[in-house]
Amino acid sequence: MKKILLVDDEMRMLDLLALYLNPKGYHCQKATSALDAIHYLESDKVDIILLDVMMPKMDGWEACQEIRKRWDIPIIMLTARSEKMDVVKGLKLGADDYISKPFDEEELIARIEAILRRKEGNNNRIEFNGLILNQDSYELLYNETHVPLTPKEFSLLGLFLQNRNKVFTREHLLTSIWGYAVSTEDRTIDSHVRNLRDKLRKIGYPIDDHLSTVWGLGYKWLDKES
After folding, report:
1. Distance of CA 117 to the CA centre of its chain
2. Which fold, 3-121?
3. Model's pTM, two decimal places?
4. Which of 120, 191, 198, 217 sits 20 to 30 Å CA-CA off 99?
């Protein structure tokens, strides 16, 4: 089930959106402010965000800009304002689409589905802070420079980039990358992480800002722009 984060300062609008979307198989998470939405994203994942523009304290444009700095989540802006300049502003700040209130239920559902299809079609290409990880061709690029990785290093990096800010224990990494039946030791993970760091340092990537050791547990990839 796809999860949608609904962000609007009017509870009536949140309830109406949920009424449209729940029967279509979407799980709706409601936030009554942009700050509440950002706090939610810090600990939970969603597939798409429906973001109202006209909100107090932090409006939808500011929220869109903040979300784009940290997460690659599709955003549809919802607003009563439909002037061309407002649409252009929202798209330039990172919104994927823009729909005006009052909106047609079928049109809203169609736009959500279209964006999710495009997102799923790009799942095998991960971009983060200059890194491009292509899981179809098993290539890693940084500023157009090819970075040679072993299959295990490539799998580790892919796991980290797809689960940013999540702590992985060494045991979890072993079972995820090497498999449940493998007989190996924790220092195998440490060796591969060390090699991955060394290769990215050599090409000038700020790996130490991102791939962090969690002492006594394992590792996590910090989701912050350098």
Report:
1. 15
2. Rossmann fold (3.40.50)
3. 0.56
4. 120
